[in-house]
Write a sequence for this structure.
């Protein structure tokens, strides 16, 4: 009899343990489900916020674009392309600097083209590309901080652009104060 009681007690203990573990598992599952619901809700809220913010940003950008288009109406396409290299930074400049850039970036580009030659090795290897050069132009005609801010993927073309600017800058129009200049230089092969 004692033996039967022991067996029954052990069975009861096992049953209690099993019930406890099942309750713990259910509680854990419920907790996880609750967390997942919270996460899903948070993701949905974030998605809605992102969508709303994106729509607002698109509207703002459209407004800015139309304002910029109005301001750029009387500017030739080459100058527009040069001004786009400045991005939002252009709008932070004072009137005098903006006027100098509008009136002279295309001239600086044309002067640079007059000095530009296509390196023979680049012709032979059919290298083409566009790089963007930046430097500061001073009222006395000097330049500083000459660098390539977007390379053409070919060192020969980039080096040639660098050397061309070092030759051509003496003929550039001079600003009334130190001015950041950004221009692109295109290398395109025609008929080679």
């Amino acid at each position: 009899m004692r033996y039967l009681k022991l067996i029954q007690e052990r069975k009861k203990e096992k049953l209690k343990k099993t019930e406890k573990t099942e309750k713990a598992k259910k509680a854990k599952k419920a907790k996880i489900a609750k967390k997942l619901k919270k996460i899903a809700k948070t993701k949905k809220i974030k998605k809605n916020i992102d969508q709303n913010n994106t729509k607002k940003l698109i509207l703002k950008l459209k407004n800015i674009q139309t304002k910029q288009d109005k301001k750029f109406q009387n500017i030739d396409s080459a100058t527009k392309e040069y001004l786009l290299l400045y991005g939002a930074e252009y709008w932070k400049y004072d009137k005098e600097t903006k006027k100098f850039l509008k009136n002279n970036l295309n001239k600086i580009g044309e002067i640079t083209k007059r000095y530009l030659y296509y390196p023979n090795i680049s012709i032979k290897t059919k290298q083409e590309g566009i790089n963007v050069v930046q430097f500061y132009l001073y009222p006395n005609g000097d330049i500083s901080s000459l660098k390539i801010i977007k390379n053409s993927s070919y060192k020969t073309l980039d080096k040639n652009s660098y050397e061309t600017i070092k030759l051509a800058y003496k003929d550039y129009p001079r600003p009334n104060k130190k001015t950041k200049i950004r221009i692109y230089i295109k290398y395109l092969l025609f008929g080679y």
In short: The chain is about 60% helix and 15% strand. The chain has a mean pLDDT of 82. Residues 1-71 form one domain. Helices lie at 2-71, 77-84, 95-115, 120-124, 155-168.
